[in-house]
Amino acid sequence: MKNNSHQMSRFLNRRQVLALFRAGAAAMVAISIPRKSISMQSRSSQPAEGLSMANSATSPKCIVKPQQTEGPYFVDEKLNRSDIRSDPSDGSVKPGVPLQLTIRVSQVSGTSCVPLAGAMVDIWQCDAQGIYSDVVDPSYNTTGKKFLRGYQVTNANGTVQFATIYPGWYPSRTVHIHFKIRTPATSAQSHEFTSQLYFDDALTDRILKQAPYAGKGERTDKNAKDEIFVEGGEQLLLALTKTGQGYAATFDIGLQTSQN
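Predicted structure:
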């Protein structure tokens, strides 16, 4: 898939590539949903933007979120690390506003919500200039670089933590971070959940005026105009708190990993 994505990127602009991947992702979900982790809202009559389970007296108190497209820049690097700011190839560290990201994963079963230990959580994102590592893009080639990519395995509390930076932007997308959760195999079957995390536009505007973001100029797309954000992005917004020179956020997600 990586080679195919690289080859396609040589001929298509970002918006075309994203459109193709969105279409492909939708087709895959339609075909393989029994083998995927699914959000509770996808099996209910609730709106497509997602469902907060905490509002129901008979539902578990974890939060179930919508899946979103993987996009064209996922590379399964298998980099087991918490601090993803550095590039293992040369030890350089990507500059940017520090962001401490905690993800707490739970498993939803009936009316209970149990921390999911042993799940592999990948995150990947662009740098302050809107560039991803280890990809071929019409405007850059970062093959062999591995900055701002990595995974952690959830502990007994279902928690992983990453040290990263506030992402930059690139044309056709609002500011975001990708994540993928792959659960431990049970009954010879594992489950996968992929989505994206977003940021408040007002905060993003303030951060993008700072170095090293400011040199890229004014961004072209905000949340409301992003074709992926509008499909449930409000349920995937990070609530940031100020911590010294940077920010911290904790994101809770409950996964439905069976067809019960």
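Summary: The chain is about 15% helix and 25% strand.
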